[in-house]
Specification:
- By secondary structure, this protein is α/β, with parallel strands linked by helices.
- It is built from 12 helices and 8 strands.
- The relative contact order is 0.15.
Length: 301
């Protein structure tokens, strides 16, 4: 794809980042390899931590617009910034440690072209090939969550709203009230979209990859936002969301059994990790802040 022009761009791709290392360049290159899509703007918003000069040069050479915010505001602050910078009909919000399949963007955009009522689409986020024992355990949880999400309410639920790659109809999303303090922005965007009468679609054929954490400490850290999701979204959406989080037990059992049949050993071990996250690690979630140390193992290349 040629370097982006603000005037000719058909949609915008935005990446908020704090760490912004080599994985960011890899992510950008995978996006630019997208097939059969019209020209688009690609913007990287830096959250208070300037890029290394060599990384910034590589991005600029690729035609990326780099926007530096000198003061750290958190991921949601940069998402708001990206929405405000987008002048196109659609904006794709993704992250700095992902890899797009060449057909992913095309499949995402087509959903909006086929149905003008669609306002929010989430790609399918899969782990990259597991190389460590721990990655294989975490992979069970990722795939099981997707399986469960597809079984529940025909795929229209917060489980399938993944902030690693969301596409928004810009005009509609600018109606959103976005609180920068929100931690689980994935679920918040889903509920805010639903509250305002928007339509959500899970794009099962549009695949984006990201590396699973390779340390239990990083997995626990990532799990924080899910532990507090219902409580914080009830606060910000100002509605009782108990029914939105009440997943039928038989669906949970169904999804778990299918994963167990496919991979009994790692599924059993994942149950142990999940138990530890919810019970033994409960104290980790008391004072969750929107700023925390960046996971490094997911950004290694």
């Amino acid at each position: 794809m040629s370097k982006q022009s603000k005037k000719t761009a058909k949609f915008t791709v935005g990446i908020p980042t704090y760490y912004g290392g080599p994985a960011l360049v890899r992510a950008v290159k995978s996006i630019l390899k997208s097939k059969n899509v019209e020209d688009f703007r690609l913007i990287v918003c830096i959250d208070g931590n300037p890029l290394e000069p060599k990384i910034e040069k590589q991005l600029l050479d690729l035609g990326v617009e780099v926007v530096l915010s000198k003061k750290r505001g958190g991921q949601v602050a940069r998402l708001k910034q990206l929405l405000s910078l987008s002048k196109t009909e659609l904006v794709v919000l993704t992250q700095d440690d992902i890899i797009f399949e060449p057909t992913t963007l095309k499949r995402l955009i087509e959903i909006f072209e086929k149905d003008e009522d669609v306002t929010l689409v989430s790609a399918k986020i899969l782990p990259t090939k597991a190389h460590t024992f721990f990655e294989k355990i975490i992979e069970v949880g990722v795939k099981g969550n997707i399986r469960l999400g597809k079984l529940w309410r025909n795929g229209d639920n917060y489980l399938l709203a993944n902030g690693r790659c969301m596409v928004l109809r810009t005009k509609f999303m600018k109606k959103f009230t976005i609180f920068e303090e929100v931690i689980n922005s994935d679920a918040y965007f889903y509920f805010e979209n639903k509250k305002l009468g928007g339509k959500f679609v899970f794009a099962d054929e549009a695949v984006v990859y990201n590396k699973s954490p390779q340390k239990l400490s990083e997995h626990l850290k990532q799990s924080r936002k899910f532990q507090i999701s219902e409580k914080e979204n009830t606060k910000y959406i100002e509605s009782n969301l108990e029914h939105e989080y009440s997943i039928p037990l038989y669906l949970k059992v169904n999804a778990l059994l299918r994963e167990f049949i496919n991979d009994p050993i790692h599924t059993f071990l994942y149950l142990g990790v999940n138990f530890y996250t919810k019970i033994a690690g409960k104290d980790l979630f008391k004072d969750v802040q929107r700023f925390w140390d960046t996971d490094l193992t997911t950004k290694r290349i």
